[in-house]
């Protein structure tokens, strides 16, 4: 009887191993395929990274380091200068704000160093430096007419 039990046990073991091998073979094939695809993708990424690095090197050589705007002198903002400009032109903070395109409060904050103007406002203030009282009044009248 023990012979039959041993024989039955060995046969069940053999058949179960066979079934496991059959099912795992497809998984092994899929795993191998995935590994190959991953390796190909890694190679493709490395090639693309080398290409991008080469393009960056070529781009940095082709394009000048500083754009044309950088050649122009940068206008500095000084609160004391804004106050003297306003008094020289005989303008109130509200009127200067209208010319620059900002509020009266913004002009006050700039003069008291509570804030600094943005680049476009600094450019507008720099433009106002070259005009006189009559021109400032003419621009204010033009703005009022609109």
Under CATH at level 1, the class of the largest domain stands as: Mainly Alpha
Shape: rod-shaped
Low-confidence stretches: none
Q: Can you identify the CATH superfamily of the largest domain?
A: lambda repressor-like DNA-binding domains
* Class inferred from helices and paired strands: mainly alpha
String of helices and strands: HHHHHHH
Computed over alpha carbons, the radius of gyration is: 39 Å
* Helical stretch tally: 7
Q: Percent helix among the residues?
A: over 70%
- How far apart are the termini? 113 Å
What is the CATH topology classification name of the largest domain? 434 Repressor (Amino-terminal Domain)
Average pLDDT reading:
88
Largest sheet, described in full? none
- Got a strand count? 0
CATH architecture of the largest domain: Orthogonal Bundle
β-strand percent reads under 5%
**How many domains?**
2
Structure description:
The protein is an all-alpha fold and 146 residues long. The protein has two domains: 1-63; 79-145, 434 Repressor (Amino-terminal Domain), CATH 1.10.260. The protein is 79% helix and 0% strand. The protein contains seven helices and no strands. The longest helix is centred in the first third of the chain and has 61 residues, at 2-62.
